[in-house]
Amino acid sequence: MKKAESNTSKNEKPAPVAPGPAASAAPVALAGPTPEQIEELKTRASRADENWDRLLRTTADFENFKKRAARERIETAQSAAAAVIQKLLPVLDHIEMAQASAQSAHSSRQSEAAAEGDELASLQAGIAMIQEQLKTVLTETGIEEIDATGKPFDPALHEAVSQMESSEIPEGHVVQQLRKGYKLKERLLRPATVIVAKKPAAAA
Questions:
Q1: Which residue, of 71, 116, 134, 191, has the greatest Cβ tally within 10 A?
Q2: Is 143 exposed, middle or buried (0-12, 13-18, 19+ CB in 10 A)?
């Protein structure tokens, strides 16, 4: 009987035991960043700030460079135009002097033959046409004529060569303009050559 009982107990399998609370897996705790990792993050953040500041400075420098380069190109073009225009101004002076001479000759010879008067008038008209064409070209390039007659003397625009007593023109004003002045935009190409009025000397 004991043998049978022992065999029976050997053949029987133990009943499965239901897992209790103690048998459940314990939750895994997440480890936080180490001090070394925190320091590395701080270093990277600092480098990122430095790179961002450098990028901003580089961008600003590049914008300033573009503006400066554009301004220099304009100034170079104006300087080149000014050099050419300054060579053309004496030509314009000679044309105006020739026109003035033609007008004077025409006035003094009005009593002469009609044919000669017609030729002189034709010459005068031709000179006037050339003068207007040249003035138009210069005006389109930005040339501005300085008219100083009767205006206060301005050393920035006028060049005084002498003084003249005048009771009609206020003292310090231009009584006569000998040669016209010209400006290119805001740049002075040539000052106007003028005679400045002064008070008449007291009568003896």
A1: 191
A2: buried
